[in-house]
Fold:
Amino acid sequence: MDSRPGDPIDGVPDYVTRRSTGFYRALNPATKLAVAALEVVAVFIVPGWPGPGAVFVALAVTALASRTTRALILIGLAASPLVISIMVVNLFLVPGAADPIFRLGPLAPTVTGLGVGLLTSARLLVFSSAVALAYVTTPVDDLLADMSRRGLGRRGVFVVGAAVQMVPRTLERAGEIMDAQRARGMDTEGHIWRRARGLVPLAGPMVFGALTEVEERTMALEARAFTAPGRQTLLRVPADTGLDRLLRWLAALALVAIVALRVSGRIG
Amino acid sequence: MSLELASIRYRYAGTSAVALGPLDLVIEPGRVVGVAGANESGKTTLCLVAAGMAPGVVGGRLEGRVTVDGVAAAGLRPDEMAQLCGLLFQRAAMQLTHTTATVFEEVAFGPCNLGLATGEVVARVRWALDAVGVGELAPRDPTRLSGGQGQLVALAAVLALRPKYLILDEPTSELDPAGTQLVADALVRAARETGVGILLVEHKTDVLARIADEAIVLERGTVALHGPAAGVLADPRLAELGVEPPARDRLERDAWAAGIEWSDRLAEAIR
Structure:
């Protein structure tokens, strides 16, 4: 590959070499992954509220500036069943907690449990938001092109790409199967028990369909010279500026510093 | 120069039954060989064997020889075989990578895998898209195409590897009449403009009647009928072999049965 990152490549149409623009979105995918990694480590390694608190502030500012607030809120809502279960389990079942808020027969939610539940939930939400921010601000093909440029093999790149695209593809397929089951008289609307029963005929075709697709997809890839030796040609290479490199170095240094402080006992 | 299957007998892994064969077949450059047959007659297996996928990728046991322009397919790597024999499956959705943002990049996936120079990749993509008449789709999202468009893009993606032979396994089976027409037109154009030899498995015998030079009908893995397409598709034994004759032949037969004199003028008017 003769071109430098971000340069247009002769003959390749603009809609292929397009560059992501806008605050945060224009950063190199590796930079966004490095920042996300730092945020995840900070959330879980820094004890108490300062970790998730600081990362939350950083994420909120970035989301507002990159206009991704709505997407992050939706992802937060999607995590709400998990958050609720974390809260319930911790409220009632934290070992050794002896500070009940009130008693209702055998049930006694505790202040300690409330604190642990809130902190765990906050960590989960901030962690998922950090990953989600990198996801929603990075086109998948930018990520894959950058990984290829950095020398990740084509199998690795394809696996990452397929994994990232799996969620929308699975949802699409679930919709098709659901429509087919409805057309055959399966009632999938209404009461929650009725909806739950509707999942049974959905799960079978989803799982077995995915398994039988593997061989066909393997052949389809072979038919397109996927296993050819040598390096792939890259039609687009995401920009990698001085700012990107600076941010990656800062993220790496901050990450090492946080781990070192935690291990040495300076924090927590 | 031909894609030649000689004394073929193929068994899938774990079975003792012969899925295909004994069978001999030659596909010459620039010619379209149509294949019809009832379900489980061996059509897809024929495609897999001809394209080197069986036993190369799916396993099983192959007797006989598949040669491409005199070179034994058994000695070729999958990527080498892909550049000689392009394989197109029934479902476009299965052939697209779902990792590209535009049709242009989707079609470029194969040439990029070969590590070709950027200019060569671009030239091949433009040529392949034009060859099947979908150049205007290049900037589109490949996951947001109609069935017919998706199949044409998948065909262009195979053509971009510049194969000498195309193996097409029921490429119109999921398409409506308009989509079928699109793909059939594209195949005619591809055969004419690229000179590739085409092995076309197709249930829709109207498509075969339109574009195939010769045709074979498979029955339990063996060739039951073989000859010029017009003759094979007019053969009265087609129905017994589980193949619906082309609409024109059915009409002609029904017309004669009803005492209506059939003429080319009448056929043209109905068409």
In short: The CA atoms of residues 93 and 150 of chain B lie 7 Å apart.
